[in-house]
Write a structure and sequence with these properties.
The protein is an alpha+beta fold. Helix content is about 65%, strand content about 5%. The protein starts with a helix and ends in a 12-residue tail after the last helix.
């Protein structure tokens, strides 16, 4: 049933202490993220029971309400309209690492819809080109799909400045230096720079520096000169630092990331897949998966696809298998079976929170056996990488069955699709078997949390 964004926003705010208690409103692909001035004013139990809420993760002042893709954007917009307080600086108390990762995620998450759309168009264009169909359309699709990636550094710069309190267009202007073709005429460290060198990492660093410079200059320049000197110095100083330092350094880091990913999969792919697939669900719970977003984006920009996402997506397959085993074993637990039936379609499409917080995590052991299924699926995909066939995704965000249109690899989308499907089936099977045999005590299995 389609929920009404306006009424859902009103109901959510009523249960978190009202609009005045909310100091920050953001969202990712599936979660409405709120920062609360007084967490004690929120009613967690009542919020979980709200229709349309698929799960809830709270840690101090940070509250994440799982609503699912599509819906979360509409509800976030309605919530933001009702919240009048300006977002403050990150609270000094709390977890600096998670706060930093959240802010980096806020830079990249808004780019995901464009990455998905362009990734699907790129795959469609490649299919037409390989099949020899509509030869006049394939180049057009390629142009439409590639334009965003060619300028992604500019969007990273804009979002970085916005997130860290600078002027977005100035952040974008400095980041644009990274992709400007004219940098090929500039020599740094004894060699000519290459357009795009440093990629999104260089753009992130350049825009962050621009924000710092802008704040420093604005606090020292007389008012009448601010309109002239502040933007000029904000572009000039970080722009030169970007040319003569950041592009080189970020380029070295980006190259190292790509080389490390390729080496890891070619030499220890099965082991890497086992670890990544098995540990991803706990990383999601802790919010540490956000650290992977810039890495995914760097790999997509550098190689055309990220080889890490298909491995990580296997975690969802293990959880689906675990949920199916619980559905079979706990025939008399009507409440749990109803929860599984409602959450399973989302799980198959890669939205894992309903199964995590509504099924596996409350029961304890099924969460561990779900991780075992994810590890097995990751090992399957990683094993083929060791044999020379890599599976990659041209965009981030989707997983499960929703990732199929975005799959490609060094041997084409056909081989990538077949291996990814095999990994999903392995994750389903091992998650099911491990949960069926070891996921619940043989006597008096606990009921899932309501």
């Amino acid at each position: 049933m389609r929920i009404d964004p306006a009424s859902t926003a009103t109901a959510v705010l009523a249960r978190v202490g009202g609009p005045a208690n909310v100091t920050s409103v953001t969202h990712c692909m599936t979660r409405l993220r709120l920062t609360l001035a007084d967490p004690a004013a929120a009613d967690e139990q009542d919020l979980r029971a709200l229709p349309g809420v698929l799960g809830l993760v709270s840690a101090g002042q940070s509250w994440q309400i799982v609503l699912g893709p599509g819906v979360v954007e509409e509800v976030t917009e309605e919530v933001a309209r009702r919240v009048t307080a300006r977002p403050p600086e990150e609270p000094s108390e709390g977890r600096p690492l998670k706060a930093a990762l959240r802010r980096v995620a806020n830079v990249f998450v808004p780019l995901i819809p464009a990455l998905i759309g362009c990734g699907i168009l790129s795959g469609l264009g490649g299919l037409l080109l390989n099949a020899g169909w509509l030869p006049g359309l394939a180049p057009a699709l390629s142009a439409v799909a590639s334009a965003f990636l060619a300028l992604i550094a500019v969007f990273v710069g804009i979002n970085t400045a916005r997130e860290f309190g600078g002027t977005p267009v100035l952040g974008g202007a400095v980041a644009a230096v990274v992709v400007y073709p004219g940098v090929a005429k500039v020599t740094a460290f004894g060699a000519h720079l290459a357009p795009g060198q440093g990629g999104v990492l260089g753009a992130l660093a350049a825009a962050l520096l621009a924000t710092r410079v802008e704040k420093w200059v604005r606090g020292r320049v007389p008012g009448p000169l601010d309109v002239l000197l502040t933007p000029t110095l904000t572009v000039l100083v970080p722009g030169l630092v970007t040319l003569y330092g950041l592009m080189y350094a970020a380029g070295a880091v980006a190259t190292a990331i790509g080389a490390a990913a390729n080496w890891l999969l070619s030499t220890a792919g099965a082991g890497a897949g086992l670890l990544l697939g098995g540990l991803f669900l706990p990383l999601v719970m802790l919010g540490l998966h956000q650290a992977l977003i810039p890495i995914h984006t760097t790999l997509i920009e550098q190689q055309g696809y990220t080889v890490l996402l298909p491995l990580l997506a296997m975690a969802g397959a293990g959880q689906v298998g675990a949920a199916l085993a619980l559905y079979v074993r706990l025939r008399h637990d009507t409440s749990l079976r109803t929860t599984i039936k409602s959450a399973l379609p989302a799980g198959l499409l890669g939205v894992g929170e309903p199964l995590i917080y509504g099924v596996c995590l409350p029961l304890g052991r099924p969460f561990l056996t779900a991780c075992a299924g994810g590890a097995a699926g990751g090992a399957f995909v990683g094993f083929f990488a060791m044999l020379g066939t890599k599976v990659g995704a041209t965009a981030i965000g989707p997983s499960g069955w929703a990732l199929f249109p975005l799959l490609t690899g060094n041997r084409g989308p056909g081989a990538a699709t077949a291996i990814y499907a095999g990994g999903l089936l392995t994750g389903y099977a091992v998650g099911f078997a491990a949960t069926y045999l070891f996921g619940l005590p043989r006597r008096n299995p606990p009921a899932a949390a309501a």
